[in-house]
Amino acid sequence: MEVLREKVEEEEEAEREEAAERAEWARTEKMMRPVEVRKEETTLTQEMLRDLEKKLSEIRIPVSVEVPAFTKDTIDISMLPVSYKTNTPKEEQLLQLADNFSRQYSHLCPDRVPLFLHPLNECEVPKFVSTTLRPTLMPYPELYNWDSCAQFVSDFLTMVPLPDPLKPPLHLYSSSTVLKYQKGNCFDFSTLLCSMLIGSGYDAYCVNGYGSQDLCHMDLTREVCPLTVKPKETIKREEKVLPKKYTIRPPRDLCSRFEQEQEMKRQQEIRAREEKRLKEEEERLMEAEKANPDALHGLRVHSWVLVLSGKREVPENFFIDPFTARSYSTQDEHFLGIESLWNHKNYWINMQDCWNCCKDLIFDLGDPVRWEYMLLGTDKPELFLTEDDSGINNEDDVENLDKEDEDKSFDMPHSWVEQIEISPEAFETRCPNGKKVIQYKRAKLEKWAPYLNHNGLVSRLTTYEDLECTNILEIKEWYRNREDMLELRHINKTTALKTDYFKPGHPRALRVHSYKSMQPEMDRVIEFYETARVDGLIKREETPRTMTEYYRGRSDFLSYRHVDFGPRVKKLTLSSAESNPRPVVKITERFFRNPAKPAEEDVAERVFLVAEERIQLRYHCREDHITASKREFLRRSEVDSEGNKIIVTPDMCITFEVEPMEHTKKLLYQYETLMHLKKEEKLSRRQVWESELEVLEILKLLKEEEEVHTLTISIYDTKRNEKSKEYREAMERMMHEEHLRQVETQLDYLAPFLVQLPPGEKLTRWQAVRLKDECLSDFKQRLINKANLIQARFEKETQELQKKQQWYQENQVTLTPEDEDLYLSYCSQAMFRIRILEQRLNRHKELAPLKYLALEEKLHKDPRLGELLKMFT
Amino acid sequence: MNRLYTSLEPRVIDDGMLKLAVGEQRPQEEAGKLAKQEGILFKDVLSLQLDFRNILRIDNLWQFENLKKLQLNNNIIEKIEGLENLTHLVWLDLSFNNIETIEGLDTLVNLEDLSLFNNCISNIDSLDALIKLQVLSLGNNQIDNMMNIIYLRRFRCLRTLSLSGNPISEVEDYKMFICAYLPDLVYLDFRRIDDHTKEVAEAKHHYSIEELKHRENLMQAQMEEEQARREELEKHKTAFVEHLNGSFLFDSMYAEDSEGNKLSSLPGVSELLESLTYRDKFVIICVNIFEYGLKHQEKRKTELDTFSECVHEAIQENQEQGKRKIAKFEEKHLMSLSAIREEVEMPNIEKMILECSTDISELFDALMTLEMQLVEQLEETINMFERNIVHLVGLFIKNVQSLYPFCDDLLCTMAQCRDLENHHHEKLLEISISTLEKAVKGNLDKDLSEDVRGLFVDKNTIVNAVGASHDIHLLKIDNREDELVTRINSWCTRLVDKIRRDEIMRNRKRVKEISLYIDHMKSELDNLEYSDILD
């Protein structure tokens, strides 16, 4: 390919010398020959050249004549700048060059499709593809990284399929137009994405190639939704603890090893069978899922973005599909081949064979054997790249763009496309109309712009059981900006279980709420942010008959409370759930170890068997013991119907003590403990009741929130925050008024008279007096003029009215009712005008002397005149 | 003498009085009835009131081990005594008595509130042990020296103090002085000290307090230093090489050696002593032994640590297993017990009870098997540890004694010490004999003292003298060596004995615990049986 490069150089030379034809013949001649032949250059005959010319003229550059995706008449080209409508000389030159290049290429590789070099833009002007790229760094920090950029492009634009799936499009519109209409084909997508990526410093390229059917149609139905993929659990590698010197030996194993082995074998067999079955099942499923083979496989044209490693700490080359914003490795089987690729500086043709998709391609653009470049000057010297060079490039590539271009022999002309701009509104709304639906394999993802849905819903993922997407398996809904801090709602359709996840900040410190129905006393689990609660509650689980609470960090070391309820006792009077709580059958409470107490006095578990009137205590186990003390109180005998004295008997308490102690055997001790426990029981029952009430309250609150769902608006959100908007407008109005007032006060009566005097000199007294008189007389004149004006109008109006009246009286008989009406309405209007003028005149007469006096007063007070006038008076 | 001996006879606390007091002060109503029914043990009493009883002498209080509050006010007690056993005491009231000196409170470390109001005390002292003291009432006494306030500075928790009615409270500066010297005090003479007073007082006594503080700090530093030194020595002692990191041994060799000292004045001998050849070498050997000892101590310590850690782990593991077994059993047992209670058919009940008892015995077997297994395993481990530790100790002794020098160029054995001494002895003998020859010839140095001259009478005398010196030196070395060896050996035996004893204790305790538990279970079952039969 060395040859070709030299040829290109020569060709450029020739272009400049305007000796196109001859040189071309010579060049094409050369081109046909291999390297050895080149030395015999001089021996070429004229005939041979003629022959060649003939041959060449036969070669036709095929031009596709397809209608573009969104037709020209939908685009308003009148507003577009000049660069869109014409080509600069340099661009013209480039186009000629490109044509030349294209012809050479089609001659050399006649079996390959023509190059995609200079499609027409929206104004039907051919533009070279590289100049259509407009590297831009977006002002949004979110768009700095490639993944968010790609996501934005894929969300923002609507996909339009290529007019002919087997050929590149005839038109390639500017990114600004594409952004305006939010529509485009794969080439538009990749051009926009590539512009943004190069702008933010990536080494990115637009690729013209061949993709699979799914890729070209933006069909994700065979892809697993990334949101449903569970993150792989990192397998913890068990650290093998070195047996210490004195680790005790395990007891001798007395089992038969042979039997064990037999058992193991049997187990393995079973497992193998199971695995085989599973595999078969899987294969069957895979078979079912597999798509029909595509007749046009490998022929469908697609365009995507290639990001090369090196810049922005990209570790290895990868592709980005601009439709779906997914990144693929360069070995991915969706990408079936590459024709050419380009960035804003140059254009490369792939000279490698794509029989094995893109798997064997090497993206070393500096290698002229694999990649044929178009412009010499902006060659990418990847082969000779040294470490520090790349370092410098990484840092300020964007700034250096222009500078670099300057030193090159022939540089790519500057992009004709206008600066890419995305308004903040458009950026926030993202998808066209703020809505987007993506269909995945067994899943559907819907996205909305924030604040679009009045309940704050921003995305919904529906997972299906089958490929046809008929049986819903589960739904996940993400919310944003909710006042109640709801973040995610997960609905499992098979079990009808709903799980709500809340962000910190719910008034009841809710974290997770999973339930089947909003009715009280049903199955539900509520988890809390325990640091936000005074009672340290972490979790409350409810079933129709039980309630379990988990605590942490309490001063009484309570960790767990479980309540069993009995069936509600039917009362005769009608009463609501609050006034008729379910009877408590059993309360179990567990406690953490209280380090301040000895273990045998520290209760670990306390069971109030309310129905049986028994209390069971289990104490904590001492560190060097395996049994724990227990105590059971039977209260059968001691409940007196009249609530009188309680008789304590020794058989009321069954005690087991690990280390029997003297004082605990005493009845007195038992009695005191019992009394204490009774108090505690009452307290616990009260707490249970309070918990029940709280659940009711939470449910009520949630229901209210669900019905109202208000959204919070950040105080920095100037667009949506009504309050701040009002405030701001009020402020603006005030500012405006203030401004007006200032202008008024600054009006200088003396200015027109002062101008007549020589500037910079102090006024003499005489001058001051004259100035004052002039000013006053002028003002008087104005007042008189005004009065005259009003008077004149008044008179004119009266005259006209009189004329009309005369006319009416003369023609009264012959008038049609319409004319009469007209006349009457005129009369009333004229009368009104006259009256107004009269009023104004009167008012003027009243006010004029006052105004005159006021001015005089003002002039007296004027600092410029005041002093002098005072002396005068 | 606030209270005169009244018509009532002075009394001594006796059993009868105590019983009466305890009986009067027991809980009321139902609980009281119960208490009366079964009687109250003195050691269960937490609070005791013995006021207005004309008590002269405190006695018979030793049984009240758990007493927290004791009131002995309004008596005629003259001496604080008999309170040594009441270590749990928090509140002690001795007001309105005739006490003259504070004493007998050294064991009451938990005391927080002490009232000695209206006594005849003239000096505050003997309160050092009461580190938790918060309230001290010393009003109406004879305290007249301001220095007593400085004594109170050591009570960091002291918040309330009353000293009114003492001679010092008449002093003009009384309040300011106390506020300044006891800055943490909150109440003085039942009044709160306001911040303003504190500030003024501090400003007033600023300099003297600073000085006092400085002195206190110095004392503190000194004590800390002392403590550190003691700890260091303790550490060396555990390594059995104390006082070997210097010339102590060498010095002690010459300390009781009169002949040696005399001989050292001979010309040439002092050079011999001072030169690097003897003294320095000797010290180097000692230091080497010292370091070697520390190193070995470290080794023994890690050995012991590993061992105890492993044993602890094993026991923990075993306990966990036991707990799991019991928990499993209890779950099942509870179920079957309630089933028995529900059951009405007699034969069924019997069958179930039988099942239960087999379950219990099964549990017993399982627990005991676990325990026996652990005992076997531990036995093995302990034996291994014993072997290792004995080996380590043996190695250390051997190396120190250098029966088998493990390393030739390192000077760290007692034997080398001895060699050095022998070598020195020979040289000394040589010099002595040559001096003797000189003496015989009559040209002895003039400046030798009479004592030394006396030695050079004949050959026997001088040889004996040198020999005696040598013997003393060797004896010292031998003694040190013997001490080291005996101590380390006894340490080793004690350690192993203790480990074995602990293990036996542990085993017994566990067995006892298991059998107690099983017994309880069985008796519970039996009770159930009886009650069922009765029903």
TrEMBL record, chain B:
Q: List the record's Gene Ontology CC terms alphabetically.
A: axoneme; sperm flagellum
Is the keyword Transport in the record? no
Report the superkingdom from the record: Eukaryota
Gene from which this protein is expressed: DRC3
Which organism does this record belong to? Answer: Aotus nancymaae (Ma's night monkey)
| Keyword Repeat tagged | yes
Assembly, per entry: Component of the nexin-dynein regulatory complex (N-DRC). Interacts with DRC1. Interacts with TCTE1/DRC5. Interacts with DRC7.
UniProt keywords, alphabetically: Cell projection, Cilium, Coiled coil, Cytoplasm, Cytoskeleton, Flagellum, Leucine-rich repeat, Repeat
Tell me the protein family, please.
Belongs to the DRC3 family.
Q: Where in the cell is it found?
A: Cytoplasm, Cytoskeleton, Flagellum axoneme
Name-wise, this protein is Dynein regulatory complex subunit 3
Function statement: Component of the nexin-dynein regulatory complex (N-DRC) a key regulator of ciliary/flagellar motility which maintains the alignment and integrity of the distal axoneme and regulates microtubule sliding in motile axonemes.
Residues in coiled coil: 209-236
